[in-house]
Amino acid sequence: MARPENNSHVDEVLKKLDGQHAKYKFMEYNLIAKKTRLQSQVPELKRSLTVIEKLEKQTEEFDTQFLLSEQVFARAKVPPTQNVCLWLGANVMLEYTLEDAKKLLTQNIAAAETNLEFVNQDLDFLRDQFTTTEVNMARVFNWDVKRRQAAKAASK
């Protein structure tokens, strides 16, 4: 920054650093949204896996309640079964055997937990970048203040 050609470009440098800071904020916002989604997805997948394991052990018909809509439940008798339908998202539901459903859910849990670790690492990296960018902005600003004070003192 101490180069003579940068004397008149302090505002441009600060604008670039501010733009970089804004990009990091946007990336952080997206990563936090992804982290929140993954944090809610993992327990949901684990609950589904627990239900599959219960169905594997179940040899007799049993009663349960299932959700029809928000706060509305119905009672049902569930016969012993070897197949379940899994909601995959994007309006897609597929029927799987209990064994295949268990494998798929286990894989999905592992993938979600791995992705959550990567998101946490990315957030840590971004926090470091925030700090570095903010320190650089402060240094450039302080350098400019000192430069102007020195120029003012020299002109007296």
TrEMBL record:
Coiled coil residues, start to end: 102-129
GO molecular function terms listed in the Swiss-Prot or TrEMBL record: tubulin binding
UniProt superkingdom: Eukaryota
Gene label: 109544459
Cellular component, GO, one term: cytoplasm
UniProt cross-references to Pfam families, sorted A to Z: Prefoldin
Record has Oxidoreductase as a keyword: no
Keywords noted in UniProt: Chaperone, Coiled coil
Family to which this protein belongs: Belongs to the prefoldin subunit alpha family.
GO biological process, one term: protein folding
Organism, scientific name: Dendroctonus ponderosae
Protein name: Prefoldin subunit 3
Gene3D superfamilies the record matches: 1.10.287.370
